[in-house]
Amino acid sequence: MEVVNAIGRRKAAVARVFVSEGTGKIVINKRELDNYFPSTILQYVVKQPLNTLGAAEKYDIKINLNGGGYKGQAEAARLGIARALVKINAEDKAALRAEGFMTRDPRVVERKKPGQPKARKRFQFSKR
Fold first, then answer.
1. pLDDT at residue 1 above 80?
2. Residue spans with biased composition (Basic residues) (predicted)?
3. Can you tell me the distance from the alpha carbon of 35 to that of 30, in angstroms, rounded to the nearest whole number?
4. How far apart are CA 9 and CA 54, in angstroms?
């Protein structure tokens, strides 16, 4: 099997995922998964699509992550892995969609408006 690639995005984070057959090693930006994401919750989030399909030990995954914070990066990696697994085997799509891993979360930060301190916050109103 050749290398299959996919892109996952969440908030400002972009994950380029490369999946190949292997022993279950996940490398993110040339660092091990548990080194890049010390939090076990975020490690779990990244591995969710693999655990759903029971394929955690079948593939080696290399991920290039940039932008965003650690939560957004973990969820971008999850989407990228799910998309790559569907490219490998299209029958897995229904199982991954049922868990919600195939849906790109469209929520992003709202832009700041001129004449306001933040996107929705207003400067204090003074009647006189």
1. no
2. 114-128
3. 10
4. 24
CATH number, domain 4-99: 3.30.230.10
CA distance 46 to 77: 6
Read off the pLDDT of residues 35-76 as tens digits, 9 standing for 90 and up. Answer: 999 999 999 999 999 999 998 889 999 999 999 999 999 999
Residue 119 C-alpha from the chain's centroid? 25
Domain residue ranges of the chain, discontinuous segments joined by +: 4-99
DSSP conformation letters of 69-120: -HHHHHHHHHHHHHHHHHHH-GGGHHHHHHHT-SS-----PPPPPTTSSSSS
SS3 126: coil
Instruction: State CA 113 to chain mean position distance.
Output: 29
